[in-house]
């Protein structure tokens, strides 16, 4: 962590932010800032919750929203493409996108590449790492953006979702410097992939600290002991 802290800003790619259902993500972001890391948040969607959790107000990182639907921000996507095509990894990213599109001929696939163009084009120079929360759509955008910027081992995934096609899951894991998950089942599944050696899979169980103010008797099993989660 010390090396990352000295190197620059970590861009965190999220599906939606802020979300009441994802206070575990907010807890992690706040803890990373407390450790001295500088973050920049990029969300694929605008918030839909009417309320936010108090922990969101304690996170200092700026939030940028990528175009949720490309046709709603055509000028922004066009500008991003004009900039992105000059990046060192553009041809490789475009080739990866066309390869993926042949296997997944959907509008969602096109949207993820368009969002990756915007992300790669708009990332400030001080960003040195990309960190994706969730293995599905955020990791897709992050993987393309990392290739566009010609970064090796810069894409990280948090939480291994198992609903991707086998080819996509394998390639996403292979693009990650490491991956973390909150369940032993997911950790075993990710570690079983030949694309991601066991040493690069980390198990990090969630805790309910965001709601620790509730008045109730402490449970005999509170998650602190990894043998009794």
Question: What attributes does this structure have?
Answer:
globular; single chain; 229 residues; seven-stranded parallel β-sheet; alpha/beta
Protein architecture, described:
This protein is 41% helix and 15% strand. It is of the alpha/beta class and 229 residues long. Helix 4 packs across helix 6 (107-122), helix 5 runs antiparallel to helix 7 and helix 6 (107-122) crosses helix 7. Mean pLDDT is 83; it is low at 1-6.
Helix and strand composition category: alpha/beta
| Computed Rg | 18 Å
The end-to-end distance, rounded to whole angstroms, is 26 Å
Give average pLDDT, whole number.
Answer: 83
Topology pattern, helix = H, strand = E: HEHEHEHHHEHEHEHE
Q: How do the strands line up in the largest sheet?
A: 3-2-1-4-5-6-7
What's the β-strand tally? 7
Largest sheet: 7 strands, parallel
- Which parts are unreliable, with pLDDT below 50 for 5 consecutive residues or more? 1-6
Helix content: 40-55%
Shape: globular
Residue share in β-strands: 15-25%
* Tally of separate helices: 9
